[in-house]
Amino acid sequence: MPSLPFDEMTRPDGGIRAPYLTYDAWMARTSIDTLRQKHTQADLLFKRIGITFAVYGDSQGSERLIPFDVVPRIISADEWDYVARGVCQRVMALNRFIHDVYHEQEILRAGKVPRALVENNDQFRAEMVGFEPPGGVYVHIAGVDIVRTGENEFHVLEDNLRTPSGVSYMMENRDMMMRLFPDLFDRYSVAPVNHYPQELLKTLKYVAPSPVGSPTVVLLTPGQYNSAYFEHAFLADEMGVELVQGQDLFVDDGFVYMRTVEGPQRVDVIYRRIDDDFLDPQAFRKDSMLGVPGLFEAYRKGTVTLANAIGTGISDDKAVYDYVPAMIEFYLGEKAILRNVPTYHLDDDDDRKYVLEHLDELVVKEVHGSGGYGMLVGPKASRTEIAAYKDRILANPGNFIAQPTLALSTCPTFVNEGLAPRHVDLRPYVLTGKTTNVVPGGLTRVALKEGSLVVNSSQGGGTKDTWVLER
């Protein structure tokens, strides 16, 4: 009989874990009806603010209210210190790796990462070979997805290094909880997260092309039909920078300018929320209507900074993920603090044979998949689904990796019947400019369906406020 997943609030003997003791005492004096009222209030407030996300291909409409749970996830100071050191170590190594593969390729020559995995990768940008981004930073903003499986047992599920999303929900969730439960915050010392936009702006200004006295930063969005448009507008407003689309920018004599009512204004840093392919129709996809003609040439000349850099996708490939612990040892001379999930590469004959024989036990993912789409959760899949997925694997084995089904930890979550355990993950947001650091918290995603391991909002998941205790 499989063991029960790790419950972050309650020990197997029924005792309450230390971070939740105050919350448990508060709950003993609070009715479920009160939580139900708070849940309704939260929905109304989010609807009024307009916090939605788009679901492509959804027959019920493209915009949904973000699912929000009124029970916080609480992490002790020591637990957070461990996670924070682990994600920062990881992002530092990944930045070194990206620089290396576009320059000396020492890690490939040393045989620590297979050369074919890099050079045959769709996300490898030959145009970036030999290019030095301002400050030497490729990944300015990273979202590292982490799951917990036990006491002091954390695993990294994947690295999001191109255009990681969700940080606005982290901040709005905190604002909502402070509004709904001020008495709870009086009982806890919770580390703040509302300084994230200022930290992000500081990071972006640090990597501006030199010399720039007071750099102009903009946030480049694909527009209002993008699934994360709310976040783009939110972050631009919080940082006090302009939210722009491709047609708002132009390149002249190797410099990027923004159209304003007072005339052209030079732009120094672009926090882009557009994928590489769509950034510049002259350099990448000719049919892109989202980008800025000539932008890549200006970038190559060093007159503008793009965050994140072009070509970072090579490191959030789910096949490259397996080699991050080796990168940490190679570049930093350290052992990885956070463990990877064991990974099978389906272009390997032995791995593929094992996976095909055990599809009902494993999670299989597309190498470049995201948002919970295109994956198979073997233990939850039907025979028909498994058979169909097997055909997909055989058609293109190199497009997939497989991992064991982890027993994700659970947190108490408000459901119709009251409080019940639901599986969660965590996405901390790591910023790299002069230094690499992480805001204490992150986005906790929760699988609202009983027994589900899929936490993505597009797949029926929700979010929680993440409380990191200061003491």
TrEMBL record:
Q: Which residues form the Circularly permuted ATP-grasp type domain?
A: 72-447
Query: What organism is the protein native to?
Result: Pararhodospirillum oryzae
Q: Which Pfam families match?
A: CP_ATPgrasp_2 (PF14403)
| Lineage: superkingdom | Bacteria
Q: Which PANTHER family match?
A: BLR5612 PROTEIN, SLL1039 PROTEIN
Q: In its UniProt entry, what is this protein called?
A: Circularly permuted ATP-grasp type 2 domain-containing protein
